[in-house]
Amino acid sequence: MKTKRTLLGIVAAIFVLTPGAGAPNADQPSSKLSPRALEEIAQVEAEIDRIEAQAIERLAAPPDNQIQQIELLGKLMLYDKDLSVYRNEACAFCHMPETGFTGPVSELNRTTGAYPGSVRTRFSDRKPQSHAYAPLSPVLHYNPGQGDLVGGNFWDMRATGRRLGNPAAEQAQGPPTNPVEMGLPDIACAVYRASQRPYRALFESLWGPQAFAIAWPGDVEEVCNRPGPPIAGQALPVHLSAMDRGRVSTSFDQMAQSIAGYEASAEVTSFTSKFDAVLANKAKLTPQEQQGYELFRGQARCNECHRDGGPGEDPLFTDFTASNIGTPANPRLPYYEENRPDALGYVANPQGPSFVDGGVGTFLSQGHLLSQPSAVDQRWLKLAPDNQARIQVPTLRNVDKRPYPAFVKAYGHNGYFTSLKQIVHFYNTRDVLPRCKPHDPGEGTTCWPAPESTQNMNTSKVGNLGLSDAEEDALVAFMQTLTDGFTSRTP
After folding, report:
1. How far apart are CA 57 and CA 292, in angstroms?
2. CB neighbours of 343 closer than 8 A, spacing ≥ 6?
3. How far apart are CA 417 and CA 433, in angstroms?
4. CATH code at 181?
5. % of the chain residues with pLDDT over 90
6. Residues 275, 146, 425, CA angle at the centre, nearest 5°?
7. Cis before 175? omega within 30
């Protein structure tokens, strides 16, 4: 079995250390991504620039419909690199359309699982989720009938939606000031940067001329060019009057609501898969796909969490609850090595190799250490033990969407799995196959590592499904029918 402590050797294959002198400055990180990863990242960045340029062209004649204007504004911000500390990372860097609005870099999916932030040596502890269909998640709430929390966004549900009434909007507020993502030190920096962008006039026409009527301090550029987190005792390093701080907070909320509006648009949340065409009697499943669908609803028990709809339900392929399926720790995550101060003195992961992802339980017990779009409801604190290590059930829509067949996608909250077949095999055999030995060549096929955490592990629906290899393949074939783009979406 691979262990977290083997990570340094693994990361050495992913990163190429920069030779030369002592401590680097903020603009010259101590290591750089591998040439292959850099090449793919450059391609993704070029595509982001192309999409952004097309969206900016639309500002010359914006839609005359308010909802479509909000969608355009949200798209412009999602593809805007200037909203990151080093102006090098748009939100879309982790959420591109060719992969179903999740991680678009095959080499990162294959190796690190997680993605680098604007500070390229800082990585998150989880893989990017898809933001398609995310706006359809309900506001996080406790359902006493089923004894479970339901809704929210993020793997740990921390974007509850309780404040803005929209989990997707609160999710959009996390990355800009997350030190391992876009890295701004203050939400005021996101608002200031937005005020300098070509979409300012559209923003003001939608949300009002007061949106950027803020007296920015003379050092705002200097402050916002320094990666977060802010230094101790300076939680709000952009010094503003109480009135201007209020405007910043409101404008930041409106930025997030615009982004959520775009994510909810037909361009992102489109319901254009083959499965949707089948529901509309415009296509038919192949015999293998049909077998997979029957297994999905039957012996494989997928439909009990990844619901395909029912009376009054859209087929969203999630029930918006959380579960611990016993996913092994992913030793490829650079996060395990982020236990030493970086060039700016920041330590992302004080626990180092001993880090265990507590999922929803950690959010409930102490909130999230990097960003808190919503406060924890104090009445939910007693739910923390029963939610430790549980992770939100993701939608299976676009689960296999990829730009070309050899493109590697990552699965599981930590990206441990690198193929859809592999994670299906895990669901089927987790409790059947033996534990892997160190460096076991059969890992993922004939053996499995131990779960990262066994707390609250799902033992009723996962682990011993009794499926044959052909039945696993049929399940994969069915889930491939959930890829959008099979049909076009028209109003």
Report:
1. 44
2. 23, 24, 25, 26, 28, 29, 30, 121
3. 16
4. 1.10.760.10
5. 86
6. 45
7. no
Query: What's the structural domain count of the chain?
Result: 1
Tell me which H or E stretch contains 323: strand 322-323
Structure tokens at 116: 């680098």
**Could you list the residue range(s) of the whole structural domain that residue 62 is in?**
33-268
3-state helix, strand, coil in the chain (%, to 5): 40, 5, 55
Helix (H/G/I), strand (E/B), else coil: 451: strand
For residue 473, give every residue at least 6 positions away whose Cβ sits within 8 Å of its Cβ, in sequence order, or none.
288, 421
Residue 308 within a domain? no
pLDDT tens digits for range 16-71: 433 333 333 334 343 568 899 999 999 999 999 999 999 999 999 999 999 999 99
- The residues, any chain, with a CB within 8 Å of residue 170's CB and separated by 6 or more, are 153, 159, 160, 161, 163, 164, 256, 373, 374
pLDDT grade for 490, boundaries at 50, 70 and 90: low
Note whether residue 28 is domain-resident: no
The rounded distance, in Å, linking the Cα atoms of 240 and 219 is 11
The values of phi and psi at residue 251, to 5°, are -65, -35
Q: What is the 3-state secondary structure (H, E, C) of 334-402?
A: HHHHCCCCCCCCCCCCCCHHHCCCCHHHHHHHHCCCCCCCCCCCHHHHHHHHHHCCEEECCCCCCCCCC
- Report the range of poorest mean pLDDT among 6-10, 140-144, 179-183, 345-349: 6-10
pLDDT at 4: 46
User: Does residue 147 lie in a domain region?
Assistant: yes
